[in-house]
Amino acid sequence: xxxxxxxxxxxxxxxxxxxxxxxxxxxxxxxxxxxxxxxxxxxxxxxxxxxxxxxxxxxxxxxxxxxxxxxxxxxxxxxxxxxxxxxxxxxxxxxxxxxxxxxxxxxxxxxxxxxxxxxxxxxxxxxxxxxxxxxxxxxxxxxxxxxxxxxxxxxxxxxxxxxxxxxxxxxxxxxxxxxxxxxxxxxxxxxxxxxxxxxxxxxxxxxxxxxxxxxx
Length: 216
Ligand code: SF4
What we know:
Elements lengths: L3 H5 L3 H24 L6 H12 L4 H8 L3 H13 L3 E5 L6 E5 L1 H10 L4 H7 L4 H20 L15 E2 L10 E3 L4 E3 L16 H11 L6
Antiparallel strand pairs: 1-2, 3-4, 4-5
Helix pairs in contact: 2-3, 3-5, 3-6, 4-5
Bound molecules: iron/sulfur cluster.
């Protein structure tokens, strides 16, 4: 028979969701604190952070930010007027690549410091806990992606180069065909510049193989 503590508690899924929402609120708060003094909005600060990692088209930037093309366009327009971003010809005639100016790189460095507070908290977990959390995040992000709640992310588990559980080494059972190297769960990437989406059937087969030993 369930005791009082059990029946008085919310389901664990709801408490986990509540915990994630609290972490989201912390990030939002830090984004405002970091962006405000620089005279940019959190969305603009995030755009600077993404472009600091690599130049991108407007569509790719909107997908990374998880916002509409119109919202991304507004943010980029402001950053261009402030002299923080320049538009350069893209790979074809009609496309444009967004790139940070020197001033944009300098601001991205400062505005991009806000996630450090979360990194420091995550680093207090032991390595096994960090890997378990990474696996849970991979599973959650993949599900959100499949439901259309977030744009496709450049994760190993959806990559055409990902070959799960092809090696005997329990520390490094997976293989990246792009880098031609074995790797373990703790090196799974959520945002890999070399990622290319695998066809849906390949993704499904890889996921079944990846989760076959209780990895996620
Ligand atoms: S190319 Fe990148 S995303 Fe793809 S399997 Fe290799 S490390 Fe993972």
